[in-house]
Amino acid sequence: MAGAEVILQTRAIKGFKDILPDEVHIWQRIETVARGIFRCFGFSEIRVPVLERTSLFVRSIGEETDIVEKEMYTFTDRNGDSLTMRPEGTAPVLRAYVEHALHLKSKVARLYTIGPMFRHERPQKGRLRQFHQMSAEVLGAADPFTDAEVMAAAHTILAELGAEASLEINSLGCPDCRPAYNRLLVDYLRSRTEKLCSDCRRRLDKNPLRVLDCKNETCRAEVEESPAVTAHLCAPCAEHFAAVKENLASLGVPFRENRFMVRGLDYYRRTTFELVTDRLGAQSAVGAGGRYDGLVESLGGPKNTPGIGFAIGMERLVLLMAEKERGLPPGTDLFIAALGDEARGHAFRLMHALRLKETACLMDTSGGGLKSQMKQAGKTRAGHTLIIGDDELASGLAILRDMETGDQKHIPVTEDIETTAAHIAAELERGE
Ligand code: HAM
């Protein structure tokens, strides 16, 4: 095999990242906190496959979106079916809701899921090709309390983890009022076509709303005076949006209206929102979501099933979390430094007995001097170290050292491993 090929084999694919042992505790903390909050907000977990039929995403996200046009990992499998690695979680969760008729189980389904998503985007800080989302969907509730509740759940997760982000909200109207607004917007933009970037010129025909959130400076200046979608909502949409804002305020969740925020997926109706920050460079959204009434029905589910949800990007959340919230990787409870052959055999059995008593325990089975073993105890971030040599075995007393305070005490060690282990486990528990 050529050298370059061997080197490539030892590198993860571009945009795909390992989460190493010394950072995994941050992810575990995020998941634990999120699961607790999801539970308080009435959500149950659902786990759905990472592969789905391509048509599911094309139908739901929209044929003319960036995701479907150029970012999906799509391939034909050995049966000739077109499959796609999920670029987001809403469509798979709704597919499962329809497939398993979950609407029959409860009037409102509240589902959350955590897992990897795949988009072939240009990797940069906070933007990967395999990334992770935790997302929540509420199906079967159309009222504006639900919108506020869902945004409050996203806000609470970020606040609890010390990740600062501001909530921006908008309403994109519904099939009754959006077409007329789209025409107004297109008329406005047509008079400025030459000034728009080439992407926006294309969007003008296919997806004019997207021109509103183009990052290009000139395009931004051009849309500054454009008609606002929220000024052209039909009466029911306007009423809904006003109630959402009132409900958010009643919960004390701070927010700001942003009429230029339109989202990159086509399924949204009425309320949309993003949790934004200026601390992630070009990637401003750490979380986002909105209402998608009509989507369940379009995927073959029961008629008139409303839906709303959000997803938080976990890589971005990790980047935003305050240092003190990240914590340290957990260390082992006990490191046994064994000196001498007889002590090593004894320590080996003692370590196993302690592990069965739920004490995290490590030793260096290859031996080594005291200095080297104490160094290893430090590296494993052991709470305590038990020092046991052949002399200690003979005298029946080993040394237990508290690694934080440096305090040492003698612990009886005998051939009765079970009793010794029980004694040590009790001693460690006392010291906690
Ligand atoms: P989205 O805005 O496409 O919405 O993604 C939600 C979040 O996922 C983003 O705000 C960002 O934090 C994270 N994210 C997206 N792409 C990447 C990437 N390439 N690298 C790292 N993080 C990324 C959705 O996916 C909708 N399904 C949200 C939703 C749920 N709407 C209703 N229910």
Condensed summary:
The chain has 432 residues and is of the alpha+beta class.
Write the layout of secondary structure elements.
Blueprint: H1 3-9, H2 21-40, E1 44-45, E2 51-53, H3 54-61, H4 66-71, E3 73-76, E4 82-85, H5 90-99, E5 109-118, E6 130-139, H6 144-160, E7 166-171, H7 178-190, H8 198-206, H9 217-223, H10 235-250, E8 256-257, E9 271-276, E10 285-291, H11 295-298, E11 307-313, H12 314-320, H13 323-326, E12 334-339, H14 341-356, E13 361-363, H15 370-379, E14 384-389, H16 390-395, E15 397-402, E16 408-412, H17 417-431
Helix pairs in contact: 2-6, 6-10, 14-17
The site of histidyl-adenosine monophosphate has 26 residues, from β6, β10, β11 and α12.
List keywords for this structure.
elongated, 2 domains, 432 residues, Rossmann fold, five-stranded mixed β-sheet, binds histidyl-adenosine monophosphate
Structural overview:
By secondary structure, this protein is of the alpha+beta class. The chain has two domains: 12-177 and 233-324, Bira Bifunctional Protein, Domain 2 (BirA Bifunctional Protein, domain 2), CATH 3.30.930; 334-431, Anticodon-binding domain (Rossmann fold), CATH 3.40.50.800. It is 41% helix and 20% strand. The chain is built from 17 helices and 16 strands. The protein has helices spanning 3-9, 21-40, 54-61, 66-71, 90-99, 144-160, 178-190, 198-206, 217-223, 235-250, 295-298, 314-320, 323-326, 341-356, 370-379, 390-395, 417-431, and strands spanning 44-45, 51-53, 73-76, 82-85, 109-118, 130-139, 166-171, 256-257, 271-276, 285-291, 307-313, 334-339, 361-363, 384-389, 397-402, 408-412. Strands 1-5-6-11-10-9-7-8 form an eight-stranded mixed sheet. The chain has a five-stranded mixed sheet with strand order 13-12-14-15-16, with helices on both faces. Strands 2-4-3 form a three-stranded antiparallel sheet. A hairpin with a 5-residue loop joins strand 3 and strand 4. Helix 6 (144-160) runs parallel beside helix 10 (235-250) and helix 14 (341-356) crosses helix 17 (417-431). The longest helix has 20 residues, at 21-40. The radius of gyration is 28 Å and the shape is elongated. The structure holds histidyl-adenosine monophosphate. Histidyl-adenosine monophosphate binds next to strand 6, strand 10, strand 11 and helix 12.
